Structure formats: structure tokens, C-alpha cells
């Protein structure tokens, strides 16, 4: 099934990221583990996504009626807390070695970043990423689609010999909704400040 990647906005961002190539012999087990790892229902995914879309419809009211804006912000906080309760995060100790975020180009359907590891096109990669300032680790199984030499490797956050681009093949729908909201928030933040974040 082909994926219309144009549906998703892409941004430059900083995330905590782990990437591990999956060997063919472990692929089926990794996919099975991935699909058994989240315990939320499809109904909870759709319900929360619908509620967030309804909140976004009030963007004009947020600008014109500050009191309503404050109440909407409270609702958003409650939604975020509910999401955390529905999707228990992985233990931070599993990612203790990741003390620095990495600069990436990301959408709700794919990611590109620089690395010293030489991946090959069609490699399957197990990703764990954390969108800051959230503390939620998002598991993804992705396929490498492009590998290029990283000639401009002196930019901040761009360390690595290769730039690798991956398409997300397995991502939980609620996690995709989290990413879409994160990217939307970053776009609003960039429009408001005129610059992207740095660490």
C-alpha cells in the first residue's frame, strides 16, 4: 500500500532517539512485540483525537475570549494527563545513556537524521524517540528509504557520516496523533518566535 507522505508536515526538531537495525530473523518477533505493547483501545484513540480536534476548532475563540482560552488550556492539560495514563511510558532507565537530544527532520510518517552507522535501503529499524518536552517514549518500526553521505557534518546537531531517511511502517495511531499535535505546536511556536528551538 502506497502512502501519501504529502499529508504530513515536516519540521526540523530536537528529539531523543535510539535506532537499532533489526535482523531478518528477529523481525517477526519485534513486530509481534510492538503490536502487543500498547494496551489502549481503538475507541480511546479515536475519542481523544476527536476531542483534540474540537479544541483546535476554538482557535479563534482563544484569541478573542481569554477566559475561554484559559479553560481550553486546562482541558488540554487534562487530555495530556489522560494520554499519559492510557500509554504507560517506558522506564527512563532503559534510555539512561541518551543524555543529549539529536537534530532531526520529522513528520508523522517519517524521520531523517545523521548517524555514524551505515544503514542500507530497505533495512528495518527499531526506533525509540521522545518528543520534548514530553517524557513519553514512542516506539516505531521503520524502513530505510534513503542513505546519503553527510558532507555538511559540522552543523550543530548534525554529527555523523551518513544522513538516513526512514518511513514509519508500524506506529500506533495514538502515537501518530501525538506526533501530529507536536508538529502543529512546533509550527505555531516557530511562527510566534521566528526561530526553531535549540538546546
Concise synopsis of the structure shown:
With 199 residues, the chain is of the alpha+beta class. The protein has helices at residues 24-37, 42-56, 59-64, 66-86, 173-193; strands at 11-22, 102-106, 110-115, 124-131, 137-149, 162-170. The protein has a six-stranded antiparallel beta barrel with strand order 1-2-3-6-5-4.
The poorly predicted ranges are: 1-5, 89-93
Question: What class would the helix/strand composition place it in?
Answer: alpha+beta
Number of helices: 5
Beginning-to-end CA distance, first to last residue:
38 Å
Using only C-alpha atoms, the radius of gyration works out to 18 Å
| Shape verdict | globular
For CATH, the homologous superfamily of the largest domain is named as predicted glycosyltransferase like domains
Query: What kind of sheet is the major sheet?
Result: 6 strands, antiparallel, barrel
Q: What's the pLDDT, averaged over the residues? A: 77
Task: Characterize the quaternary organization of these chains.
Answer: single chain
Helix content: 25-40%
**CATH class placement of the largest domain:** Mainly Beta
Number of domains: 2
Q: List how many beta strands DSSP finds.
A: 6
Amino acid at each position: 500500500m502506497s502512502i501519501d507522505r504529502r499529508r504530513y508536515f515536516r519540521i526540523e526538531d530536537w528529539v531523543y532517539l535510539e535506532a537499532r537495525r533489526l535482523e531478518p530473523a528477529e523481525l517477526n518477533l519485534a513486530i509481534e512485540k510492538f503490536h502487543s505493547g500498547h494496551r489502549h483501545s481503538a475507541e480511546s484513540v479515536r475519542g481523544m483525537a476527536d476531542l483534540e480536534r474540537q479544541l483546535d476548532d476554538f482557535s479563534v475563540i482563544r484569541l478573542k475570549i481569554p477566559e475561554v482560552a484559559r479553560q481550553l488550556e486546562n482541558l488540554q492539560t487534562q487530555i495530556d494527563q489522560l494520554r499519559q495514563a492510557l500509554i504507560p511510558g517506558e522506564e527512563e532507565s532503559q534510555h539512561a545513556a541518551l543524555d543529549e537530544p539529536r537534530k532531526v527532520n520529522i513528520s508523522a510518517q517519517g524521520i531523517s537524521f545523521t548517524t555514524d552507522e551505515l544503514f542500507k535501503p530497505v533495512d528495518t529499524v527499531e526506533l525509540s524517540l521522545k518528543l520534548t518536552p514530553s517524557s513519553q517514549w514512542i516506539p516505531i518500526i521503520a524502513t530505510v528509504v534513503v542513505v546519503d553521505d553527510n558532507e555538511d557534518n559540522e552543523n550543530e546537531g548534525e554529527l555523523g557520516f551518513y544522513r538516513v531517511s526512514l518511513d514509519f511502517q508500524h506506529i500506533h495511531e495514538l502515537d501518530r496523533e501525538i506526533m501530529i499535535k507536536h508538529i502543529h505546536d512546533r509550527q505555531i511556536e516557530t511562527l510566534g518566535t521566528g526561530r526553531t528551538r535549540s538546546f
